[in-house]
Amino acid sequence: MAEASNALTPRDEEVDPQFEPVIKLTEQIETKTHEEDEEVLFKMRAKLFRFDATSTEWKERGTGDVRLLAHKETKKVRLVMRRDKTLKVCANHHVSQEIKLQPNIGSDRSWVWKVAADYAENPPTPETLAIRFANAENAGLFKDAFEEGQRINLGLSNGLSPDEAIKAAKAQSKKPEPVKAENETDAPAEAEKKEEGAEEKKDDEPKQDTEAKEDA
């Protein structure tokens, strides 16, 4: 019985505190968005909508910073917008000459445009988009930057070097100073003042009439 008891008694062994992990972690892979190869030309907070042709309704696509990015070498300009928090892309397309920014019905702080291929989804899809800013001034700044980006891309497609395309685009962006007539004053007309005072705030959501649903 003593021998059996000794056989069941565990032997004194050295304790090794090191354990081999059951699951080995793989090396962290760096995710590239290609935005690291670009510089920001314009950045502003906005809300984006897309027009759903099936339901004939505007649907919110996301709120976040809309940016115009230029490639550091080629200088080609594209529009990229990511949603807040999730950073998921909700707009991604080149700023081509074919795109026409149109004012949204009933709003002075939003724009509507059509794009043949938006790369926010895979595969890319044609979209009718609308973007809304905090005020009319911000909307105007976006339009100026967007159209300058279009001119840069047009110059590049016409064979200009990146520097030449940028120089030509900026030259066209300069607006001549208004020439004031001798009797002209700085004060706005009283009728305009009354009109602005009487104007009521309208609904912010993009609006379209029946005809605009096809063209806006």
From TrEMBL:
Position of the signal peptide: none
Coiled coil: none
Annotated RanBD1 domain residues: 18-155
GO terms classed as biological process: nucleocytoplasmic transport
Annotated transmembrane regions: none
Location of region: Disordered: 1-20, 165-216
CDD domains per the UniProt record, alphabetical: RanBD_RanBP1
Pfam families: Ran_BP1 (PF00638)
SMART domains: RanBD (SM00160)
A cellular component annotation (GO) from this entry: nuclear pore
Protein name per UniProt: RanBP1 domain-containing protein
PANTHER family: E3 SUMO-PROTEIN LIGASE RANBP2, RAN BINDING PROTEIN
GO molecular function: GTPase activator activity
Record field: compositional bias (Basic and acidic residues): 174-183, 190-216
